[in-house]
Amino acid sequence: MELLNSDEIDFEQYLKLTEAHMKVKDASVFIDELKEDIVNPPKVVSCSMPWSKTINEFNFRPGEVTLYAGSNGGGKSLITGQIALGLIKQGEKVCIMSFEMKPKRTLMRMTRQFSGQDLDNLFIKDRGALINSYYDRLNKFTNEKLWLYDQQGTTNSKQVISVARYCAVELNITHIFIDSLMKCVSGEDDYNAQKSFVDELTALARDHNVHIHLIHHIRKLSSEEVKPNKNDIKGTGAIADQVDNVLLMFRNKAKERKIRNNETVENLPDAVLMCEKQRNGEVEDWYNLYYHKDSQQFVEDEEAVPMAFDAVGAF
Q1: Is 276 helix (H, G, I), strand (E, B) or coil?
Q2: Quick one: pLDDT at residue 44?
Q3: Calpha distance 291→165 (Å, rounded)
Q4: 37 within a domain of the structure (yes/no)
Q5: What is this structure's pTM?
Q6: pLDDT of residue 28
Q7: Using CA atoms, how far apart are residues 298 and 53, in angstroms rounded to an integer?
């Protein structure tokens, strides 16, 4: 894993798109490409989420943008960290640009998900050696596959675009996570700026054949127990219109309340990942997930064990 630091890299030069004279081409160029496609049909390599119930239904395709939206504390950062580990397992190169959390904190969370256990609360004799071994395993697992942008707090959309383009052009990164949209655009009611930023992200994803994962918030609903829909995404409606995929993360507060009151919660999921839009896919479904507390992973069912990301074979 590596850090991207604005003090060491001049990202500004990656702000602008390729020069216009390189973009304007004679039609014969595209005709030749179409002929070649007949002989050698292009193969689109898409990636899956790390749950078996989603593998044949939802895919992360090159050139697309996926929006994850949910309430504060709803599990957006946790689930995207787990998805990032799943993408690395599939051989993808990932960059995480979090303006909500320092890289060390991000890696601590990912190490807990990677190890499958609560490393902070292990009470064993060789606790330090065990934790070090997991850091070493994670380092090996993510070697030349994971980058983190070292900046927290509010940034600006131009800086984010330039860093993302640098990742795509210079590092051949295939998946870029941005956490979150509101840290990149000043002003919750600046709808034009939001629209412009998301428009630039979709163009960047398309031009460089990368997949961008954008984390966002929903507006406050009448109750935390109400499931949101894509109309509840904070800001302009153009955000959901422009992106290719919309995933809503819903934390089941009703189940948590029932547990506190010693009520029956049989078969109730801890979270629901709701696919509200998949532009180039056939399925838009809701996926019940269960929270494995020690690992901070979301698993398939209440009896499922945490995913072993560096094990040989599928999840």
Answers
A1: strand
A2: 65
A3: 35
A4: no
A5: 0.91
A6: 85
A7: 13
DSSP letter string, 17-66: PSPHHHH---HHHHHHHHHHHHHSPPPP--EE-SSGGGTTT-EE-TT-EE
pLDDT at 21: 47
Q: Is residue 268 part of a domain?
A: yes
- Number of domains composing the chain: 1
Residue 269 lies in a domain: yes
What is the rounded CA–CA span in Å between residue 50 and residue 257?
Answer: 28
Residue 240 near residue 248 (C-beta atoms within 8 A): no
The dihedrals phi and psi of 112, each to the nearest 5 degrees, come to -65, -45
Q: How many CB atoms lie within 10 A of CB 67?
A: 25
Cβ-Cβ contacts under 8 Å for 255 (sequence gap 6 or more): 265, 268, 269, 270
In sequence order, the 6+-apart residues with CB closer than 8 A to the CB of 83 are 49, 50, 213
Q: Is the pLDDT of residue 227 over 60?
A: yes
Q: Where is pLDDT greater, at 40 or 7?
A: 40
- Assess if residue 294 is contained within a domain: yes
- Domain extent at residue 230: 2-16+43-299
* pLDDT, tens digit (0-9, with 9 covering 90-100), for 160-178: 999 999 999 999 999 999 9
User: Which pLDDT does position 313 carry in this prediction?
Assistant: 77
Question: What CATH number should be reported for the domain holding residue 95?
Answer: 3.40.50.300
